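Encode chain A's predicted structure.
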Amino acid sequence: MKQSEIYGLIGSILTCVLIFLLLWFLYMNVEVPEEEEGIMVSIGNADAGGGWQESQMSESTPVAPPPTPTMPSQNDLMTQDDESLALAEQRKQEARKKAAEEAERIRKQKEEEARIAAEKAAREAALAEQRRQEQEKIDKANKLGGLFGNNSSGNGSGNSTGNQFEGNPLGKGTSGGNSWSVNGRNLKGNIVKPSYNSNIEGSVIVTIRVNASGRVISANVTGGTISDPQLREAARQAALKTMFSEGKDEVTGVITFNFKLN
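Encoded structure for chain A:
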């Protein structure tokens, strides 16, 4: 390459470098003005009027929207249905429980009434049987009295062998307007008169049990036409105080107290 060409190339390069540096300094030092923010407004009624005017936007306080009414969800509806069904089932169970308790009460009441009726019937049957047996004894004593003859005073007597116990085969008689019937025994003294102040007329039948020594060990009112409890008790107490002759075994009998108006 020639020397002149070399010098030309170097000159071109230096020229380009100088132009670049010049442009660099020019454009780096230029300040670009910032655009002012604003809103273009039109002043006046003219169509040509216009310009830029800075407007300060006032900050507004956000207003909360009104609450939106919430509709019950499917789960809420199902929960309410379950509670209603549970309450209805509980009421049904309570009603069934009350009905069962009432039925049990009625059943127990009927059982108690049946038991009381059965006990009453049993007592009446036992009393009827006792009266029947006593009546049979009285009838038997009356038949024996017919065989041995009539003795209205009841003072018939006899002697037994062995221990010499005094006995009366008739086992019946009267005393002071009252009558007695004890098989194989005599009356000692008189039948004790009941103490009473009532003006009542009628009879009281007392069934007695006499031991071997002739004492009345039990007495129960089993009949008669008088229902006054005081008079019936007075007759029972009088029967307990009445004495009979001795014997080998315990025997039963009847004392009939006849009450008349004074």
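The mean pLDDT is 76.
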